[in-house]
Design a protein that fits this description.
- By secondary structure, this protein is an alpha+beta fold.
- The protein has one domain.
- The chain is built from three helices and four strands, in the order E-E-E-H-E-H-H.
- It has a four-stranded antiparallel sheet.
- The N and C termini lie far apart (41 Å).
- 11% of the residues are buried.
Length: 111
């Protein structure tokens, strides 16, 4: 069975016109997990996230400052959601990273 890729998508808030961002982990979820709301409306940001965007696409660079700030805010929110709800969002290799100080005392480490 294929593991579903989490997506971030947005919806326009009808009350104030701002943009609400959500995380959708499973395809069966109707609404998603709320991330945050912007205090402005931007058509460029809205068009980018209205259909959903995978998390691995978030790491690309952009020349637009507003979109870069939104990406950074989304990534910060996702790290918080991952810790708070114990959801595996980011893929990890499973390798343990050692500092230089720990390597000296680790007997399995070869020089």
């Amino acid at each position: 069975m294929c593991k579903s890729k989490p997506k971030v998508f947005c919806q326009r808030n009808v009350n104030n016109g701002f943009i609400d961002f959500y995380l959708k982990v499973d395809r069966g979820q109707s609404k998603g997990i709320y991330l945050f709301t912007t205090d402005y409306f931007s058509y460029n940001v809205y068009d980018t996230y209205i259909k959903g965007r995978r998390i691995d696409e978030m790491y690309g660079n952009t020349s637009k400052v507003r979109q870069q700030k939104i990406r950074e805010r989304i990534l910060r929110s996702l790290k918080y959601i991952e810790q708070e709800y114990s959801i595996d969002i980011f893929e990890r290799s499973g390798k343990k990273f050692y500092s230089k100080k720990e390597r000296r005392y680790d007997l399995s480490y070869e020089m």
